[in-house]
Amino acid sequence: MKQTKITKIVAQEILDSRGNPTIETTIWAGAISGSASVPSGASTGTHEAVELRDGDKRRYLGLGVRKACKNVTGTIFHAVKGMDCRDQQKIDQAMLALDGTINKSKLGANAILSVSLAAMRLSAEMQQKPLYKTIAQHYNYKPRALPVPLFNVINGGVHADSGLDIQEYFLIPQRGTFAERLRQGSEVYHTLKKILASDGYSVGLGDEGGFAPHLGANEQALKYLSRAIKQAGYKVKTDFRLGIDAAASEFFNSEREVYKMKASRLNYKPASIYKLYQKWVKDYGLQIIEDGCAEEDFLGWQLLTKHLGKQTLLVGDDLFVTDTARIQNGVINGIANAALIKVNQIGTLTETIAAIKMAQSNNYEIVISHRSGETTDSFIADLAVAVNAKYIKAGAPARGERLAKYNRLVEIEQNL
Ligand code: PGA
Ligand code: ZN
I need a surface site. Which of 238, 252, 277, 393 has the fewest CB within 10 A? Predict the structure, then answer.
C-alpha cells in the first residue's frame, strides 16, 4: 500500500516572470511529492482574494512572501498533516476554516493556493496519471477537446508602457489542431514584429510577451493585427479572429463615471461605451471582449450585453473574479456571457471548480487564464483540458512562462 497521507510540506520564495517574489510549495506523502507555484496579477480586481506580502521594505521593496511561506509550513501544514492527499475538498476546506476571512487575508490566497494546487499534483503523481485526467476524474468531467488559444500579441494598460488604454489584443486562430493553431499564432506574431519594426515602432515586449508599440490610438493595434494576419498568408475573420481585454476598470473614473481613454483622447460614459466596441466588432470582427466595462459599472455591462451579447463573447474578469456568487449574480442580471477563470483570484481549486460549474451550468463560456506575473508552472493547461474550457489565455506565443502552458497543451494533445 502506498502512503497517501500528507507527511511533509516545504514552501519557498521564488521569483515570477516580472522578477517579483511568489511561492512554490511541495507536498509529500511518504516518498511521493507534488509541487505548484502561484502567479500574480497587475490589473487585479478589487474583489480578488488577497495576496499576502511581507511589507518589509528591506526585502524585495516590501513584496517578499516569507510570511505566506511560513503560513504554509506552519499553520497550514499542522492542519492538513495526515490527511489523504487525494481528498482535495477536505484539504481546501480545512484551509478555508483556518483562514476564516472572506478574502483569505489571514493566511494569504497565495499561501492557500500553493497548497491546493500542489495537493492535486501530488494526487496525480500518487495515481500515476496525467494531471488533466486526475482533475477531470475528481470533478466528473470527460475531457473532449483542447481549448482554443487567445494569443495576446499587443500589450497595453498596466502591462506595458505602450500608452494604449486597451490592455490586451488577442489573435484567435479559428482552425486546426492545437499544435497547428500555435504555429499559426507564432507565424502572425513574427510577421507583426517585422511590420512594426519596418514602420519604426519598438518591438520590445510587455509583461505577457506581446509587443508594446506606441501606436497613438487604441484602434491602430487592431489595424496592425489585421495587416499581420494577411501578410502572414491568412484570412482575417476566417483563419483568425481578434479579441481584446480592455481591462476597463483601469481607465474608469468611478467618481465621475467616465471612461477616459488617453491614447485616443476620448471619453465615454457608461451609457455609451458599448458603441465604441460595437464599431470595433463591425470593423474588425471582434470575437471576444473581456472586461469591456469596469467591475462596478453594471449599467455599462448591461448595455454591452444587450447590444453585443448575441454575436460577441463578453468575458467577465475583474467583474466576476472567479467567484461563484458573482458569476451567479451576472447570470441573474443578464451581464456578460462568459467568465474568465484565474485560480489565484479565488485561492483554492475546489472554489475554482465551483465557479467553473456555475458558469457552465448557465451556458456561460469559460476562459482559463494565466496572470501577467507567471511562473513556468503549467497547471492551468491541464485545468483547461480537464474542464473542457472553450478557451485558454496564456499570453503571446513567446517567453518561457507563457510557452510552458502552450507547450504542455501540445503534449496533452498527443495523448488525448
Ligand atoms: P493581470 O492581467 O494578471 O495583470 O490581472 C490579466 C487580465 O487582466 O486578464
Ligand atoms: Zn482581464
Answer: 238
Q: Which of 158, 322, 371, 393 to mutate to test the pocket of ligand 1 (most atoms within 8 A of CB)?
A: 371
CA distance 279 to 292: 13
The angle subtended at Cα 41 by Cα 107 and Cα 251, nearest 5°, is: 125
Cα→Cα distances 163→151, 168, 261, Å = 20, 12, 10
Q: Measured on CA atoms in the order 122, 127, 132, 136, is the torsion positive or negative?
A: negative
- Strand 252-253 versus strand 286-290 pairing type: unpaired
The three cell numbers locating residue 344: 489565484
Q: Which residues of 170-203 are buried (b: 16+ CB within 10 A; e: fewer)?
A: bbbbeeeebbebbebbbbbbebbbebbeeeebee
User: Running DSSP on this structure, what letter comes out for residue 157?
Assistant: G
Helix-strand-coil percent breakdown of the chain, rounded to 5?
40, 20, 40
Judged against a pLDDT cut of 80, whether residue 1 lies above it is answered with no
Q: Minimal CA–CA distance to 351: which of 326, 317, 316, 329?
A: 326
**Sheet of strand 32-37, all strands in order from the earlier edge strand to the far edge:** 8-15, 21-29, 32-37
Q: How far apart are CA 37 and CA 271, in angstroms?
A: 41
Q: Which of 20, 40, 167 to mutate to test the pocket of ligand 1 (most atoms within 8 A of CB)?
A: 167
**pLDDT per residue over 129-187, tens digit each?**
999 999 999 999 999 999 999 999 999 999 999 999 999 999 999 999 999 999 999 99
Alpha-carbon span 339 to 309, nearest angstrom: 13
Residue 265 has pLDDT above 90, yes or no: no
CA distance 304 to 277: 8
Q: Is 219 a catalytic residue?
A: no
Sheet containing 252-253, strands listed edge to edge, beginning at the edge strand earlier in sequence: 252-253, 258-261, 266-268
Percent of residues, the chain, with pLDDT higher than 90? 98
Smallest-distance ligand from the CA of 345:
1
Give the Å distances, CA to CA, from 259 to 2, 168, 252.
Answer: 58, 17, 4
